[in-house]
Amino acid sequence: MPHTEPRSPQLNSRPSGQQDRLSVDPEALFVYGSLQFPEVLFALIDRVPDHEPAAAKGWRVATLPERVYPGLIPADDTALGHLLTGLTPDEWRVLDAFEDPVYELVRIDLVDGRHGWTYACATATDVGPDDWSAEAFEAEHLPAYVERCAAWRRRHEANQQAS
């Protein structure tokens, strides 16, 4: 069974609803899926923020049905990713608007004692049974996903200007 489908039926259309809090109190963002890739970050915010490898014990990076990007769920596992720091309030707002409504923004502890915010699945029923593979995503989906991110950003910016 393939772990992802070639296209998502819906690409990150609604914000997760955390924009006000993030614009006031931005902290580090733990990323474990597509936001680990510099190409994706550059397509969304025109830069790659400071980042370093990080891990979160008690979490699993799982496939999401009919999506190429993953979800983070509580589990007896350790999620690997990166901790992004130095995001501006505007960048937080863009990333929040970009994220799929399947996510909620939660604060998590990392294995090295630091903490950060992350977009975790609101319910475990939204995830598939398999672990998500960054290597498979990069090999099979990254170029098309980056193009979709750039197209999303153009639409988002046009909507922001119209508001």
TrEMBL record:
Gene3D superfamilies: Gamma-glutamyl cyclotransferase-like. Residues 1-20 are annotated as: Disordered. Residues 7-20 have a biased composition (Polar residues). It comes from the Bacteria. SUPFAM superfamilies: Gamma-glutamyl cyclotransferase-like. One of its GO terms (molecular function) is transferase activity. Keywords: Transferase. The keyword Transcription does not apply. Residues 29-132 form the Gamma-glutamylcyclotransferase AIG2-like domain. PANTHER family: AIG2-LIKE PROTEIN D. This is Putative gamma-glutamylcyclotransferase. It comes from Actinomadura syzygii.
